[in-house]
């Protein structure tokens, strides 16, 4: 049981760091997008959801005996996100790169919550399990939206670029 608790605490801290990274990434993307209003609106919506997820995970973390020893890791995650945002800004196709990155990132989040749901279930942490299931729904919806819109975003980017309109953001 002690080992199980350790793994659970570790995965929960990682998930929290991941959501902090997501907040940085989504804010950077939303701020830069200019010509893709539907994408921008969906990112803003998920940013609000993600802020709620970060808070919900922080509440669960604060209840752990080990507390929040994740400060260093969280800071590292934020730095990584900042660097990624800057790199994205330098590309000529940042909106497409951003949509691809978000699509991959959402699936990483989905995997994270599936693992946490299984662990919480083994530990009979019913309250935490319900939190993870709620978050999983939001991540799944965002992933599905991105999947449905990757085609449109790509075509709109190509069309604007062909016409020498600002396309990259
Ligand atoms: Fe998330």
UniProtKB/TrEMBL annotation:
> What InterPro entries does the record point to?
DUF892_YciF-like (IPR010287), Ferritin-like (IPR012347), Ferritin-like_SF (IPR009078)
Gene3D superfamilies tied to this protein: 1.20.1260.10
Highest taxon of source: Bacteria
Q: What is this protein called?
A: Ferritin-like metal-binding protein YciE
Q: Which Pfam families match?
A: DUF892
Signal peptide region: none
């Amino acid at each position: 049981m002690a080992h199980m608790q350790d793994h659970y605490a570790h995965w929960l801290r990682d998930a929290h760091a991941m959501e902090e990274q997501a907040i940085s990434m989504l804010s950077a993307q939303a701020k830069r997008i200019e010509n893709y209003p539907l994408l921008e609106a969906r990112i803003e919506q998920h940013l609000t959801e993600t802020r709620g997820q970060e808070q919900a995970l922080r509440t669960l973390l604060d209840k752990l005996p080990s507390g929040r020893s994740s400060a260093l890791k969280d800071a590292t995650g934020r730095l990584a996100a900042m660097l990624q945002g800057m790199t994205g800004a330098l590309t000529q196709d940042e909106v497409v790169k951003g949509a691809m990155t978000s699509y991959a990132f959402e699936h990483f989040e989905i995997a994270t919550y599936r693992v946490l749901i299984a662990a919480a279930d083994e530990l009979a942490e019913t309250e935490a399990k319900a939190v993870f299931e709620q978050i999983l729904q939001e991540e799944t919806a965002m992933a599905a939206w991105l999947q449905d819109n990757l085609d449109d975003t790509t075509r709109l980017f190509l069309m604007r670029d062909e016409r020498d309109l600002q396309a990259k953001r």
